[in-house]
Amino acid sequence: MYRFKPPFNFPSSIAHGIRTLHHTSWKQLSEHQTHFENVGPMASLLKSRSVIRFRGPETVKFLQGLLTNDVRKFDEPIGEKTSTLPTSNLPSASIPPMYAALLTPQGRFLYDLFLYRPPRSELKLDRTGSRPGSSGEPFELFADVDASVLDELLETLKKYRLRSKVDIENVANDFSCWQCYDVGLREKSSHAEEPEAASVGWGTGLDRTGMSASSGGNLGWQWFKDPRLDCLGFRGIFPSNTIPPLVEADKETDDENYLLWRVEKGVAEGSTEIPKRDAMPLEYNLVGLNAISFDKGCYVGQELIARTHHRGVIRKRLLPLRFLRGDGEALEQKVAPGSEVINPASGKKAGTVTTALGCQGLGLLRLDEALKGTSALTIQGQENVKVDVVIPDWWPSEWFEEQQHRTTVG
Asked: Where is the CAF17 C-terminal domain (predicted)?
């Protein structure tokens, strides 16, 4: 559990001053003016993330038996859904990244990974810009991982490797992770509405930047839609000595603003916000974040995940929270992670605050208590603090149907 100071550029919560009912949808919040609006696309170098590289002929087979998602997609022919316009230094289509997790044998969360397959050299121009690059290079994937557990993750992966023909390297000094985000960014990214954005890689796999027009090697890296949710923006791995395309000098901002962006959407990331060896992946909404495949077959921790999913009983989920005074005004820096959230109407514990940032946070809450709507929740021992539960608009409708069915049966 983690507590953060408010980001420097935005000292107040983006929802400051908004009066709401006990339950608020993100659509309602988006109707109000926020500090992110009218700023334009922002980009953050993610200091909390590092990069590792898998290289070797058995890379896919190795990761397929470990991770929650279907890594075999990186070995499949590129379909129309990932096709893009031809470029001078990249293939006309590329494979989108994938979000996945590594679990304990008991099905508890350990680490999350964003997997990328870079375009092969023979599909790009060489450094002379006159012919394709050399072929025959080994298969490789890059992974964007939590920097705070990098050494531990590498040790765990190498423990599982055994005789698999795959090398696992720490390339954190050579590559960096970036996120680009903005209010309404996914609408702006269409060719018709934002041709400039569309021309520099704001799509599934598109990069027509001039810097990569006639060079191979490390150039030609690109932005991809965040594989979790469109509303999170765009993500990418880039060489550490470069600034990604579309990042203007005055639009690079501290990565705590990206944290605030995620907290608003109810999305946790990394082994601190998703407690290592304790968190249940389905309670932290990893299914809705496209991190789990139920068709791939066996992987470490798969039995519990499959059983829980098919039984359809998820009693707790991670939700975005807002901390308010009694008059509905935002309350900054008064709630710490680990604080218990109470439903005063029933006197029962609704859940626990897992992340706090200014007057916003994330909480793992019991849905039967959190979504009753009869009265505002409060913090145990701080009854003057009201807790507003925000229901993200990306939640699948069946999550509500499950809760309504259990309430009716109960």
From this structure: 315-396
Any idea which fold 46-247 has? Alpha-Beta Plaits (3.30.70)
CB 384 within 8 A of CB 334: no
- CA-wise closest residue to 229 among 269, 271, 273: 269
Q: Which residues pair with 101 in a beta bridge?
A: 112
| Averaged confidence pLDDT in the chain | 78
Tokens 């890296």 found at: 221
- Is the distance from CB of 369 to CB of 346 less than 8 angstroms? yes
Q: How far apart are CA 156 and CA 104, in angstroms?
A: 11
pLDDT for 14: 30
Task: Compute the distance between CA of residue 71 and CA of residue 141 in angstroms, rounded to an integer.
Answer: 10
The pLDDT value given to residue 408: 53
Q: Where are the domains of the chain?
A: 13-37+315-410, 46-247
| Nearest partner of 270 among 118, 410, 99, 128, judged by Cα | 99
DSSP per-residue letters across 120-164 = PGGGSB-TTSSSB----PPPEEEEEEEGGGHHHHHHHHHHHHTT-
Report yes or no: 34 and 183 within 8 Å, Cβ to Cβ: yes
Q: How far is CA 196 from CA 188, 190, 265, 272, in A?
A: 10, 10, 27, 37
Read off the pLDDT of residues 1-34 as tens digits, 9 standing for 90 and up: 444 443 334 333 333 322 222 333 333 333 333 4
pTM: 0.81
Among candidate residues 194, 168, 169, the one with its CA nearest the CA of residue 182? 194
Is 374 exposed, middle or buried (CB count within 10 Å of its CB: 0-12, 13-18, 19+)? exposed
